[in-house]
Amino acid sequence: MRKAFIFASVIALLFCAGYVFAEQGHESSTMGHINEETTPAVEVGNKICPVSGEEIGGAMGPGTQYEYQGKVYNFCCTGCIEEFKKDPEKYVKIVEQEMPQHMGMGEEDGHEGHHHMMGEKDEDMMMGMDKGPSMMGQHQEPMMTDEAQVKEINLEAYQFAFSQDTIIVNKGDTVKIHATSRDVPHGVFIKEYGINEKVEKGKITDIEFVADKAGEFDILCSVYCGRGHQNMKAKLVVEE
Amino acid sequence: MDKWKSFIKNKKNQVILLLSFLCIIKIPEGGMRFVLWIAGGVLTCVLLDVLLNKVFRKKKITPQSAIITGFIVSGILDYSLDWYLLVVFSAVAILSKFIIQIKNKHVFNPANFGLFAAALFRQPLTWNIESNIYLIIAAGIYIALSIKKWPHVLGFLLVFSAAFYFSGINPLNMISWFFVFVMLIEPKTSGFGTWKGLSFGGIAGLTSFIMFKFMPQIDIFVTSLIVANIFNAIVGNVKFGQIGGK
Asked: How far is A137 from chain B (nearest CA, A)?
């Protein structure tokens, strides 16, 4: 009886301690905060200040940096950072437009190419990756590259969902998924296309396949990622 | 009434009831495919266990263990996979009981062995049977205490929680209560005694963490139980090499 009491007490204590911890963790993950200590920011590497249009490192000096939604942007001066803060999305778009000429966020050490190596053009597409909460539960229309029928998709996995619940492509498209994790290791499993890749925090795993089968296919997490692992699903829709 | 009482007092029947409830809870989401998947796993395990016992051991059995094995294999292996995979890994689970033995006792938790084989072949283990953790914890505490397996649970929880906590990951977000209260404490392959139980659980907890750090794509819990089962076999101080049943 005594053992039973101690046993039940220890379990209860662990549960209470963990609950508090879980609540804190849940808050930060669902709010989409990216903790600097746990998620390394990605250098965007823009060479032109999105606010002033000046070349960084030119007449304005060496420039300065500011982190927004897990990405580090370059600016010519602190005044431009203040301007950026007023309407970040506007300036992020400007940086995205600049990137075809001055893309610099492809950090080789954090880049895992399982099916192909990403080229400069592929890296451009990563600019569309949104690590914040805005993409949660949304559909993403894949971005088209210059070549028709090549679709680039950015997919972030986190406890316990994918950043997009549905990915829609056309039959015959070459699909390139650039997958990463926000927290613990996850997996991207699509049975019908024979895909099963591990994705980790701080690394981008490239998954490429030709969508030659029409239909709706489950995207599952194939790496145990915690108590909600069983519900971590998304859908790939291949339209005729 | 007495029959019902003796039925409900049986620990294996209690586990079967728990597994049935967990599957029923999952049905609204899993649908008919999930029901058939579970039934297929249970049926495969039961048929094979009955057949192998009849042919090789010349005895009739009540296949409660096989029912539990079937529930676990089919409940953890993703139900969208091809049917033949369910049959193969369920069969591997039951066969392991007959083939990998020491002194006529199986070394590995059969269901876990089948799932380990599936994990090695990169099949997704989605743990769908873990449909209600509160039910698992409540029933699990009762079962662990009644079969004197609380040291195993404690050993696992302490090491697992400490390792994840100190690496900055919430252990409660990562833990599988189904694994702790259903798979880890399987009586025949986990040994008895306070210190042995604590060590068994501790080794499983530590292995889970090491797997999480270095090889998470091979299921961390399933692998940790394989390692703990081997530890139990070694500590049992028996010679390896005796293959096959009586």
From this structure: 18
